[in-house]
Amino acid sequence: MIKNIKWLNWSNISSAIIFVFIGIMLISPTVKGVVIQGLMKIGLFQPDIPSKKTSIALNNKNSSIEGVLFRNEKGEVVNLSELRGKVVFINFWATWCPPCVAEMPSINNLKQKFKNNANVVILMVDADNNPEKSQKFMRRKNYDLEVFTPASQIPEDLFGTALPTTVLLNKKGQIVFRHEGGADYANNEFQDYIEKLSQE
After folding, report:
1. Using CA atoms, how far apart are residues 98 and 92, in angstroms rounded to an integer?
2. Domain count, the chain
3. pTM greater than 0.70 (yes/no)
4. What is the CATH number of the domain that holds 159?
């Protein structure tokens, strides 16, 4: 005689919940972004603060910001080389990218911290080149981040293909930080690093 097997036990229910959650994460970038945000809050996805050695290695790539242009939502063109004398934080992102969405609150926090510092500029560059969609996203989320789109060829050392990609330029226009993937830019050490660069 075959015994009745109880399928509705805690082990099977919890397994089903986990599979459903993983399925939702694979389908929904928003849910995946929320999960990554949660992991950022417990200390994961922290940006590595560049050492002097790292900065020198990045600068020795012969990278040039000459002729790199971005356009804001008013149609005004920003020439990256004209921002020498300022620390420039550039984030390449897209609305459909979960790690981009996850790190956005920390970048908004960064913007608030340096809002009154004329030596720090934050450029949020929509890699999809779809300003209407990205501006709508910023308004919906109440972020105080101006959206830019590429207005020229972007060198690979600034942006290759990975989203998000974040680059930090010092006042000389040299790349001193480059990170592919999501990160928590509300990190105090990272913000202190920008503060230090802005005072050099």
Report:
1. 13
2. 1
3. yes
4. 3.40.30.10
